[in-house]
Amino acid sequence: METVVQTMPELPQEILMDIFALLEIPDLVRAGSVCSSWNNAYTRIRNIGQKKQAQTPCLLYTSESAGENVACLYSLAEKRAYKLTLPEPSIHRRYLIGSSHGWVITVDERSEMHLVNPITSEQIALPPVITIEQVEPIYDNTGAICKYNYSMDTKMSVTRRPLTLALGKLRYYFHHKAHIFYDASVGSYIVVFIHNPFGQLVFARLGDEKWTRLSSSYTNFQDCIYQDGVLYAVTAFGEIAFDLSGPVVGAKIIMDRVSDFYGRERVYIVQAPWGDMLQVWRPGAWINEEVDGHRHEATFEHKMKWMKYI
Ligand SMILES: *[C@@H]1O[C@H](CO)[C@@H](O)[C@H](O)[C@H]1NC(C)=O
């Protein structure tokens, strides 16, 4: 059969990119496989790091029947699910403790963290958990880590005996939640991780070998947001700004405690469409659901009774 190859006039890359930036992710991925010029525009959009256009949310889930390494992504825009095969370790057995910019932050059965992009299957290991001072490795005779000692000491509390935990058990106690932020000044990402005991804050840039503690004087961090080199982090006691743009991290309390409620409420920071930062407070109530006899810090749920904007 004779094939006639016609040379089609090409749209300039910038115009292709403007058009592609308006697409929902599934359409964007399809557009990227049309031809090399469209693929180039698609790759460049992805490398910008942040798609400007807000996406219709997708629901990410795993199931036993789909398989150990398969994540299912339900697209609300298309009302259909995609099955995505992801790299080891098993996505079905990981905890998901945060997501943003297309990345999901996971904790595996060794209590180690990865960033994984379910669309592209890219995966990036985050620094080992033993680089945080509360976690001490215990080695077996082959030199492999077989358990962790989890210390609940902080500068503010008295010394207790550490808990000796199996590799997969650490995440029940230690991991609370994580955030990923895009740092436009270096074109890369910052991961901020809130861990126990007492909601402490560490961060890492991609490629770092260890986690860096942000503050040992403040604890009970609940949420944070990053803007122009400054991390705004909130505790039940107030709000602190960490300047991450220089070689030395500066910390400043920018808002004192604003509520008389104490204890179970959760505090979030959100950015309004008009740019203001808001705190959102909501009361927490444990849902008494125990898996394997444990309340999972990483998978707890809170019932919503009221919300308060400040
Ligand atoms: C782990 O903790 C136990 C006490 O709970 C202690 O006996 C042991 O020496 C610790 N091991 C390491 C490697 O820190």
Automatic annotation (TrEMBL):
InterPro entries, A to Z: F-box-like_dom_sf, F-box_dom, KIB1-4_b-propeller
Family annotation (SMART domains): FBOX
SUPFAM superfamilies on file: F-box domain (SSF81383)
Domain F-box: 5-52
Pfam assignment, any one: F-box-like
Gene3D superfamilies reported in the protein's UniProt record: 1.20.1280.50
CDD domains reported for this sequence: F-box_SF
PANTHER family (alphabetical): F-BOX DOMAIN CONTAINING PROTEIN, EXPRESSED
Protein name: F-box domain-containing protein
Organism from which the protein derives: Panicum hallii var. hallii
